[in-house]
């Protein structure tokens, strides 16, 4: 969730390929799926050149690259498909703002894939770059630890799925859709935790509660930053006159756009709820302070005058007529009870107790 | 009022029909009304196919479907009328953002119907989907527990009502209008409660008061989220060049648009009032703390020096000349009164009492 | 200043005439003024039909209707002049948002007339509806208690006034102008009160001060809600290609538009001033708490150790050598003075006193 | 800095000339400058008619009117130059919002000239109206106490100045430029004072500090209100297709526009700095309260148990074995030191001291 | 980081050259680089006239001027290249708002170069002006202390660099890019410091922590002010139909635009994080106050009643039967333990301890 280091890039020529992600080590894994309505072939390949044998239409080629450590893969990809060096640079620079850019021959979409670590409750974000061509789609993922595309793969295996009958632009929609759906999952998780904290807030709020609120606030801030530009990107895809997006797909992209707006709405709602909770917390802290102070004041107001009285008759003056009185002691006891009781009545009247 | 679970949908093919609402069990109930200026026939039907016999113009067919548990109804509806699968999916996904979408042959409007449970004070929201065709209107409601359309039905029974003489687009307006009017009812309720809390705030504010303010704030937040997109939707209906909206209806939709703007205005006003109340509350809590502390300080400031004096003459030193004085004790009493009185004058001057 | 009840309207057919205002009883009073450059005739009439004899141009007819209780008046007006039922409904629904709507044959403007009750300091708002036709202007006022149009009437009586030589659109401008000017009057009043409260805030702020600030805040909120849409309405009038607005009047409407912007500016300034005052108040409350606590702490810090010392020598141990010392008592006195003085020096150094 | 009284204007016919400014008394002073590239003549004149002899081009006539008390001057000006009555009214109404309005034959610009009184630190604002015609510029100033135009006059005296060679539109730019530059001067002053307060805030903040912050906030609010609309006005001048603005001047107006944006930027920055300072102040007040309370608590926590112990052995029971012990007194002293020291260690550990 | 003094400029003719920067003394240093794809020549020159010998295309001339103290350099530059006096004035006025202005023959870009002083943590800002012509680029820097262009120079030395093969518009992009990249570096620094403060906030927050937060807030405010207008400037460059920007460069400018948006995003995120931290701080201060007050109240509530009891039996009344009891003293001890223990149980139950 912190800011990625761009320092090493400062001043380099644009288009210089430098890996900025976290997972520097580890192999780069390339998966290839080729399909049309009747056939589907999926295999792992060694190098990206093997994927680049262009198949005749309507066969769709989906190349999924996991891990960005191997710069050679990117260079080959760039030179074979004629991808602009700035796009290659963007794929590597894993702190990209989500966007969709039309380069005529191909369309470049970059966004964040979000998952929530169940145990630590930490958000994990991984950059996904999608390059859509006439009959291919290449997806680049930052990490190797798995992705959210499993369901798309199983839909592809189903021969009757609409996905099989349509072009790579529909595959693009499917991948974007599943990523956006995962934002919903994360927001549901966060919403559950907000409800937990809410109960805590009423029962027994502590400083840990505030820190939890604050941590959630930052996660929402992070999600907002990662998601907000996506709305614009999807909106531009849906309006796109690019011939790469078929008319039948546009209606699905509009549906996707509705989903992105809904994610943002939910984000906004959760943020306002958290703000309200902070207010509740602060007002409950003030209230408890008030209560504590009332207890202190009541005790002091009752016992300070009494201590004065008993101190008075503890003085050692030679001539103190009350000391000689037979009922002097009982009078002091009575007076004390009177003062104490009177104070209690007074506090009752002021609604302090 | 919480976020609906979309989890089960993540990664499914778009257009997959899955029920997301709460009321999964229970039958789906279908009511059919067919009317023109001179005739009206209303009956319950078993299956939706029975409604789909297209009547010649100007007869208007209104099919009202209560409950979304029976997916077959939707499938039949979709295939007979040629409704896009994404629309069917949206009807089922009961966490839709309000919107109006033009599909050429038909118009799809989705929004939230709001009622306020009188006893618990809980908001209840139910999704209503309206599909407007050339000579039919199909309305889908999420729940079975009744709706706000009763008044529209009785207006339909009145042969002279303008509603009878006009097309299904006017019926669409009538249904939207009655839903928007119910937002006014809910806001009036909330406004009454705000006034109650306001009185409480001045008389005797407690933590419960803050929690009530907060609960109302969240209800308004929820209403805002449910209503805000409706303005855009109605605005698009009113501008619509769709041939499904007749010119005579447009002026009524403009009137409806004014109502939606007014609902939003009222929402905004109520939210600002609640914010102001929180400020009042916090400042009154600080004030009371101040008052409590003043009482404590006054008591302590008066009795601590006095206790010191009486303690002084309670010492057991052999040689303490004052102890021998005949009027020593009275001097202490006089001194105590002087100090106490002087303190009171001082506090009076500083306006503490 | 509260929300008007729309409940009774929920679900009724649009255009149903139901009175929503407060002044249900009392007669409806109709005043008629007919004028051109050389003649003027003003009289009260019994029923609105009498006003509706259309005079040849350039005679201007101004009908002013006070009170909306008599629904017949509206019905007649509507049928004679061909006014749309929705407009008639809007005239009656006295919680309208200010707006200007062009119906081709006539122009409908609705807004709030604001006065401030001198004694109670309560805002009074009354809805004014203006219907401008080719050669007539009909104004509807909610209440019977007088209006702000007196000055317009006296200008009409002056034969040389520009008002007499121009059409009903200029009369419309005159009425709008005088209503907007009254907002200035109200804002001046409120501004004076803010200055009073400001002085109070520095001299001796109490909870009543906060409540006064809060009341003013709500009044400004209410004024903002009542006025804000007027800017749009006047702006649309000034741009209007409606042939009902003559070119010579447009420049005056632009001037009126400048005034509305200025009212909004002033509203905004006053609101920000009030917010700043709340901050001042809160910080002064904290400061006084600080001061109170300092007094308490100083007293306690001086006298608690002293009380310990005198308590020490009040003990009844058999063997306490100091008690036998001749100057023991004076030593304690000296020690007490030393400790007390030392504490005071310490507090002086810490700038507590 | 308060709201000007418009009360007397309410309901008057538009274009009625009524003086609203503060300086009602005092003569109106008229200065005339006529210049072209080779000649310049400057003189005071008695009445405005003397200025109105139109000179042949390229001679530029600049008439500067100081003081608005003499309504005749305005009336003459209006009738000779064919100025619209609403413009004359605006010149007199000294609470105008800055604006630029194109009346074809002439251009009307109105804005606020700001100076800061060095001693009292009060802002002084004076309305300046500028009427630009084909070969003349008339400037109206509200007050008589001098202006900021001196430097423009001395530039005019310099024969080689670009100002001499160009038309009255360049003179308009020069006057606007010098007024905008004075906003910078005022903001620099305020910025210096903010820095002073900042030092105070860290050294020794008092209630006076908050009031100073608040006063500056209000001054910035006032400046913002007076300046904000000017941006729009200058922007419209620069885009103006009015033939009164020559092409060579447009580039200078664009430069002026940049300056207005910069003034607004600076205003915004200063406002945010002040807000931050209030936060600092409040948090430092809370901190000091915390500190004060810690001192009190430490003292009370140490001496209350000790007082109990010495009180215990001050009791007069017949049978109290400790009293007879030889080292009883020393034990109490030792115990007291132990308890006191233990408490101090405990507080040290909790980082209270 | 303070506001630069514009005072001396007020009222001067536009285009008057006055040095406003800080580094008034010191020589002005001029560096000249001439290059095309095959040749590169770099040298320092004495006066700017030496740079102005126009080379034939495609040779690119880059003149870098360090220090603005020598006004002659600017005057020569202006007259040789036909630069508008207002541009020369802008180059000198080192408080310019970033902008890009198209003057047809040349393009003027001005922006702030930011560095962060490692030790003091102070931001340093230096104005950079860039004038782009057909085959030259002139860059003006305010100070002499070095710049961020070193990497661009070394890229120029590399014969194979794309920079060598392209025109001066690509050099413009390279310089802008390296400046924007330095904003990232500064933001990373600030982000690191925010994380440090965050740890401090949880461990042991002090007033110094708030002041550090506040200082960072002001730095971000300053950065925002310096950077925000740059987005617009770069956006206008990228859309520019100026023939000075070649089509091949536009795609790089779009990339640069993405970077500026990202800088602004990051700025916004950091600002929200700081705001959240202030909330955390305030709530932790209130919490600690609460804790302190609880300790005080617990101590007082336990020992005040006990002190009353022991005081009671320290009274010197003649007739006090308890004093004679054999176990009186032990009863008091027992009673004290009972009261103290009871109080502790009570506080435990209220969760105070």
TrEMBL record, chains A, B, C, D, E:
<feature type="transmembrane region" description="Helical">
    <location>
        <begin position="327"/>
        <end position="347"/>
    </location>
</feature>
<feature type="transmembrane region" description="Helical">
    <location>
        <begin position="295"/>
        <end position="315"/>
    </location>
</feature>
<dbReference type="GO" id="GO:0000287">
    <property type="term" value="F:magnesium ion binding"/>
</dbReference>
<comment type="similarity">
    <text>Belongs to the CorA metal ion transporter (MIT) (TC 1.A.35) family.</text>
</comment>
<keyword id="KW-0813">Transport</keyword>
<keyword id="KW-0460">Magnesium</keyword>
<dbReference type="GO" id="GO:0050897">
    <property type="term" value="F:cobalt ion binding"/>
</dbReference>
<keyword id="KW-0812">Transmembrane</keyword>
<dbReference type="Pfam" id="PF01544">
    <property type="entry name" value="CorA"/>
</dbReference>
<dbReference type="InterPro" id="IPR002523">
    <property type="entry name" value="MgTranspt_CorA/ZnTranspt_ZntB"/>
</dbReference>
<keyword id="KW-1003">Cell membrane</keyword>
<dbReference type="InterPro" id="IPR045861">
    <property type="entry name" value="CorA_cytoplasmic_dom"/>
</dbReference>
<keyword id="KW-0472">Membrane</keyword>
<keyword id="KW-0406">Ion transport</keyword>
<dbReference type="GO" id="GO:0015087">
    <property type="term" value="F:cobalt ion transmembrane transporter activity"/>
</dbReference>
<protein>
    <recommendedName>
        <fullName>Magnesium transport protein CorA</fullName>
    </recommendedName>
</protein>
<dbReference type="GO" id="GO:0005886">
    <property type="term" value="C:plasma membrane"/>
</dbReference>
<dbReference type="GO" id="GO:0015095">
    <property type="term" value="F:magnesium ion transmembrane transporter activity"/>
</dbReference>
<dbReference type="InterPro" id="IPR004488">
    <property type="entry name" value="Mg/Co-transport_prot_CorA"/>
</dbReference>
<dbReference type="InterPro" id="IPR045863">
    <property type="entry name" value="CorA_TM1_TM2"/>
</dbReference>
<keyword id="KW-1133">Transmembrane helix</keyword>
<comment type="function">
    <text>Mediates influx of magnesium ions.</text>
</comment>
């Amino acid at each position: 969730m912190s800011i990625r280091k761009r320092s090493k890039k400062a001043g380099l020529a644009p288009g210089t390929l430098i890996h900025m992600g976290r997972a520097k080590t580890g192999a780069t894994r390339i998966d290839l799926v080729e399909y049309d309505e009747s056939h589907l072939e999926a295999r792992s390949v060694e190098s990206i050149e093997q994927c680049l044998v262009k198949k005749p239409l309507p066969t769709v080629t989906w190349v999924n690259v996991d891990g960005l450590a191997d710069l050679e893969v990117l260079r080959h990809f760039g030179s074979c498909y004629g991808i602009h060096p700035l796009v290659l640079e963007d794929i590597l620079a894993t702190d990209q703002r989500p966007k969709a850019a039309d380069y005529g021959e191909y369309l470049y979409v970059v966004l964040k894939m979000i998952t929530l670590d169940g145990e630590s409750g930490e958000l994990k974000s991984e950059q996904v770059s999608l390059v859509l061509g006439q009959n291919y789609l290449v997806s680049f993922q930052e990490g190797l630890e798995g992705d959210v595309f499993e369901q798309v793969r199983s839909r592809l295996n189903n021969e009757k799925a609409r996905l099989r009958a349509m072009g790579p632009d529909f595959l693009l929609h499917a991948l974007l859709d599943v990523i956006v759906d995962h934002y919903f999952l994360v927001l549901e998780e966060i919403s559950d935790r907000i409800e937990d904290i809410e109960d805590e807030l009423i029962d027994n709020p502590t400083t840990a509660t505030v820190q939890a609120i604050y941590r959630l606030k930052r996660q929402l801030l992070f999600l907002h930053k990662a998601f907000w530009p996506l709305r614009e990107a999807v909106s531009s895809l849906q309006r796109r006159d690019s011939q790469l997006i078929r008319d039948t797909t546009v209606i699905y992209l509009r549906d996707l756009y509705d989903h992105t707006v809904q994610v943002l709405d939910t984000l906004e709602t959760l943020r306002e709820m958290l703000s309200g909770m902070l207010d509740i917390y602060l007002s409950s802290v003030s209230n408890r302070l008030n209560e504590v102070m009332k207890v202190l004041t009541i005790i002091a107001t009752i016992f300070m005058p009494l201590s004065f009285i008993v101190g008075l008759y503890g003085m050692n003056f030679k001539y103190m007529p009350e000391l000689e009185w037979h009922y002097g002691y009982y009078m002091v006891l009575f007076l004390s009870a009177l003062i104490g009781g009177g104070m209690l009545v007074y506090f009752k009247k002021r609604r302090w107790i």
